[in-house]
Amino acid sequence: MNIKSWHTDKKPWIIAGPCSIETEAQFDDTVGQLVKNGIKTIRGGVWKPRTRPNSFEGVGEVAFPWIKAAKKKYNVDFAIEVASAEHVELALKNEIDILWIGARTTVNPFNVQEIAEALRGVKDVPILVKNPINPDLNLWIGALERLHDVGIEKIGAIHRGFSTYQESLYRNIPLWQIPLDLKSRFPELLLINDPSHIAGKRSLLFEIAQKAMNLQFDGLIIESHRNPDEAWSDAAQQLTPDALDDFIKNLEIRNPGFPNSSFQNQLDQIRDEIDETDKELLEVIARRFDLVKQVGNYKKDKNVAIFQLERWQKILAERPEWGKKLNLSPDFVKSLYQEIHDESIRIQTDIFNKK
Ligand SMILES: C=C(O[C@@H]1C=C(C(=O)O)C=C[C@H]1O)C(=O)O
Questions:
Q1: 64: helix, coil or strand?
Q2: Same-domain status, 242 and 265
Q3: In total, how many domains does the chain have?
Q4: What's the pLDDT tens digit per position in 154-213?
Q5: Which of 289, 344, 346, 351 to probe ligand 1 with, by most ligand atoms within 8 A of CB?
Q6: What pLDDT, in 10s, does the model give residues 250-279?
Q7: Ligand 1 mean position to 344 CA, how many Å?
Q8: ipTM attached to this prediction
Q9: Pocket of ligand 1 (CB under 6 A)
Q10: How far is ligand 1, taken at its centre, from the CA of residue 292, in Å?
Q11: How far is the CA of 119 from the CAs of 12, 122, 149, 214, in angstroms?
């Protein structure tokens, strides 16, 4: 898949608007305030996929005349979520400028293919694909490919975090490595962060958005409502248009490149040192595994079990403490040794399996 960059406006691209379009007045008022603060692309939910039945599922098609009126009055682009071919047809008929596919749709290749077919031959309507709810990079790429394969050129990705059953600080855990892996596979792919759905609450929004800026995301899609506490969906995570304006003004936008050659030289020097350190690190790790092999051969001779609980518990208790004295985070040291131990078991299993 050869994805080209297409969005050339100033970064970050901010897409803001209410989670759901509720009434004509709520929508017009919210858009008016956002536009006054310089927002040029508005989002708004027409159909809302909800986890449980009997929640507010969007006003549906009655929103289109309100959107049309707001677009004309405020001269803005408008983005909505589509989840079926029928949604796409209605969106195109009603001159919606930008579409996105939600996380619950991205997981289903049948749905994505249906949406892609409905968009075949449409050249000028960008489509953004939210990550699937489960942390599966290939599923995300697959959805982008299905859209690319029908000839859509303006494609982007939205990182909205991943569902988890465990208690978490976030509504959806960010797993930043996944969007970064996507970006390394497709460097020109437009990548937008959705702090609202990762955070699930206002207090976390800023640090998530700032992190996205630190990681060179191209834009943010943020929920904003004229009166968040009264919102019919996602009340806890929306910002008023004025709060959003402050929020954006406080974001530090990072430079993608380096300011000058002396900065580059300094960085190169440190990176050379990192390269040398990594060589030493790998030599030390290889030495450890040579010792693990010796232990494996002894065990095989005497038919002793590979996994040794007591020894492993001692390592797991001691190493994070050793690390602490070197200012290493105990959690990091613990997960490092879990990886190392897995590899030790694999190496010794190989030894046992050899005839
Ligand atoms: C190397 C050994 O085998 C296994 C691997 C260990 C390790 O990598 O340190 C520790 C305990 C064992 O589960 C050993 O028994 O010492």
A1: helix
A2: no
A3: 2
A4: 999 999 999 998 889 999 999 999 999 999 999 999 999 999 999 999 999 999 999 999
A5: 344
A6: 999 998 888 888 988 999 999 999 999 999
A7: 6
A8: 0.95
A9: 292, 295, 307-308, 311-312, 315, 340-341, 344, 348
A10: 7
A11: 27, 5, 11, 34
Q: Which of 196, 216, 250 is the last residue of a domain?
A: 250
How many Å lie between the centroid of ligand 1 and the Cα of residue 139? Answer: 37
Mutate to test the pocket of ligand 1, among 291, 299, 308, 316 (most ligand atoms within 8 A of CB): 308
CA atoms within 13 A on the CB side of 344: 24
Domain boundary among 223, 250, 277: 250
Evaluate whether residue 331 is within a structural domain: yes
Q: Find the domain containing 298 and state its range.
A: 261-353
- C-alpha 291 – ligand 1 centre gap (Å): 10
Q: pTM above the 0.80 mark?
A: yes
Identify the residue whose C-alpha is closest to ligand 1 atom 13: 307
Whether 220 and 184 map to the same domain: the answer is yes
Helix (H, G, I), strand (E, B) or coil at 208: helix
Residue 1 inside a domain? The answer is no
Whether residue 128 sits in one domain with residue 80: yes
- How many residues appear in the chain? 355
pLDDT at 52: 87
Same structural domain, 188 and 40:
yes
The answer on 296 and 218 residing in a single domain is no
Measured from the Cα of 307, ligand 1's closest atom is 13
**CA-CA distances (angstroms) from residue 41 to 31, 58, 212, 291?**
10, 20, 19, 60
Q: Could you tell me whether strands 219-223 and 190-193 are parallel, antiparallel, or unpaired per DSSP bridges?
A: parallel
The atom number, within ligand 1, closest to the CA of 299 reads 15
**Claim to verify: residue 201 and residue 119 sit in the same structural domain:** yes
Q: Which two tokens stand for residue 132?
A: 């699937």
CA distance 204 to 201: 6
55 shares a domain with 126: yes
Cα(301) to ligand 1 centroid in Å equals 16
| Cα(306) to centroid(ligand 1), Å | 7
Whether 278 is covered by a domain: the verdict is: yes
pLDDT of 144 over the 90 cut? yes
| Biggest distance spanned by C-alpha atoms of the chain | 83
